Amino acid sequence: MSADPSPAYDEELMAAVGGLGTALRALVDASVRTTLPAAALREAAGEAQALADRLSAATRPVHELPELDDLLTFRRVYSPVTGVGSALAPPMRLRRADPDDPRAGILGTATLGQPYEGPPGYAHGGMSALLLDQLLGACAIAAGLWGMTVRLENDYRRPVPLRTPLELCARVVDDTGRRTVVAGTIATAADPGTPLVEGRGVFVLPRPERLAGYFGAVTDASGRPSPPARPTDGTAVPRD
Amino acid sequence: MSADPSPAYDEELMAAVGGLGTALRALVDASVRTTLPAAALREAAGEAQALADRLSAATRPVHELPELDDLLTFRRVYSPVTGVGSALAPPMRLRRADPDDPRAGILGTATLGQPYEGPPGYAHGGMSALLLDQLLGACAIAAGLWGMTVRLENDYRRPVPLRTPLELCARVVDDTGRRTVVAGTIATAADPGTPLVEGRGVFVLPRPERLAGYFGAVTDASGRPSPPARPTDGTAVPRD
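^ inputs. structure came back:
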């Protein structure tokens, strides 16, 4: 019996969270590119702070998941890499390489703007690592093999250009019960056969006592305990 | 003769850029913690987009550095890790372990809020990699050994808690001309002797023809060519 990979959620709220994420990403992008004088920046800061104060009128506790999240299908709307509601996320979009085969690996797309700059004109090396950690972890999840990152290795072959559509891919290369090894690459969408960065991640499912220690306090928005876990049948697709 | 490690800059503009960065970080934080209903989020999105449009009235070209930046002293106000003006950056603060010894390594401090979450309650594994890449690279720079990341390895010993002061440290462990190897750790400030994540980075100074190919188009705010390079005497201190 297969679990529903996408439990129902409030679609109006999802659209609003995504809309705010989009607007905040535009704001973050504009804030690093603007050449307006100090007075205009001070005025903008005042308005941004007022907006922050208004949004802070009602907030969730640190161990309570957002209402829209679902850990079993790894729907994380505020993920700093894939979250539609996150101003930190490009956001990277993920899909299965083959919708019918959970072990065929996953593909990702992202475009990194000026806020992600490291060396002038190129993505920060750590941003490539951030994308790869998410990609490799999501690949393990897509294969029903969720685990926590225990090792991440990245080899940088060429700099990753900004404002250029990127294509990422990953597949599970080893799987020994609790331990999963995933390999992946970042390339440009224009030249997907030339890897710019190659990554390799090792993910381990913590033992039950560790899981309880790490995540014992986590609840969903209704207060129900909701620690992360492997999906029961490996059909869950990583989603935003 | 020692180069001035901190060329003059417009202090009013620096304060305004830092102020806008602080306000935007508060806004990003509030946006992932708010439980306000869809209508309030839609209204906030409209205001954020209007603010983005205003800041976009005057912007710099993609290959022109911000007015406040200085590559020789690695002052990068919009760095996604250390930039005072970056909404993506915690920001991490760096200082030399020994102000008088460029080879003594560097120390960093940062606190990661809810926007940096990976597993519930903990930092995203890729965020640790992002912090370490910056830390290790800055350590090479502080020793006068700037290079581009060619390899980054991270070993995750324990999850990195959110909203907890972190302490990072790094030192150069090998240096063979163009190639520098740096090792570093992330720990909590409360227990700095217990590494949560260990990182090792290899940085290589690109050959002159590569440097010209990668960065030939980079200029400072006045239009003067301004590619990254190693400081002449290793006295430059990484700065925000």
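DSSP finds four helices and six strands in chain B. Residues 232-240 of chain B have pLDDT under 50 and may be disordered.
thumbs up if we can close this ticket
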